[in-house]
Amino acid sequence: MSLRRLTAAVAVMALAAACTQPEAEQPPQPVAPSPAPQTPPTPPVGYACESGQTVEVRYPDASTAQVTYKGQSYTLRSVVSASGARYAGSGLEWWSAARGPQETATLSRLGPNEDVGVAVLERCSRPTQATAPGEPAPQPGPATPGAATPASAPCRGPQLKLAEEGGDAGAGNRVSILSLQNVGTAPCSLTGYPGVVLQDARGRNLTTVRTEQNPGSYFRNGQAPTPVELAPQAKAYFDMAWNVVPHEGQGERTCPAAARVRATAPGDTAGISLNKAFTPCGGRVQVSPVRPVAEPDRPAPQPVAPAATPART
After folding, report:
1. Pair 16, 8: CB distance under 8 Å
2. Are 79 and 85 in contact (CB under 8 A)?
3. Paired residues of 244 in beta bridges
4. Most buried in the list 9, 169, 257, 261, measured by CB within 10 Å?
5. d(CA 295, CA 220)
6. pTM of the entire predicted model
């Protein structure tokens, strides 16, 4: 075989071998990363304070409390407490504890060691189910399954008017039905509990009387907070309940004399006032959430089966 034929044969064999080799694997196509699931922000828990302020707190996890007070936000971390849930940081201490159907809390200024509260700024409360000592407050769920989300901006003090619409009395208990009227030109919405503080005839806050949020009262069943849309000139309503019998077992002989009610819309700080003279005993008044009607529905009485006619003998 000549050298030329040998070279051609080798070339053909090499080409055949190359054609029988598997194609090189291609690198996989890059896959766009799945977007990280968006965790909805923790809803705030609102606490009504004796001063008329509202403190909002978010609990994103078991060791953090994000406190909003007078328009400023502070991040606090869980610290050791003898009872309840206690958080400290950013110069503040937030200490809450559940007592039956009420959760009470104090907001205090930290001392020089940034560990212990030395000056109470607010005493607050809200209705809730009792929690075990040391647990953070439970997060509020939807007020009512399928409840509507407010379509309007929240109502503010300057566009509201406070008035008394009636009341009830019995067994030493009293309740006033108060209204918040939208006197502005645009619709607005209210959701939750209004802030209420009582004042004397000289306009000073009655610091011996605290306000407690309560979905119901002696006269009415409980009602969960739901959004209330207010067209111009429309009204929303809430109850203010108290007792008029001195708590002599607590050393009370004379009840405080209130001359004025100062209210704030839920989540607002601008107060509106109503002259009202009354004597709340026991150091507290209870406030219900706002509702769209003055008189909420009462449960219908159950029909009573007629008594059987005795058989004649």
Report:
1. no
2. no
3. none
4. 261
5. 9
6. 0.54
Q: Which two tokens stand for residue 83?
A: 């009872």
- Tokens standing for residue 172: 């030493």
Shortest CA distance to 86 belongs to which of 116, 127, 58? 116
The whole-angstrom separation of Cα 3 and Cα 5 is: 6
Q: For residue 22, what are the contacts with CB-CB under 8 A and spacing of at least 6?
A: none
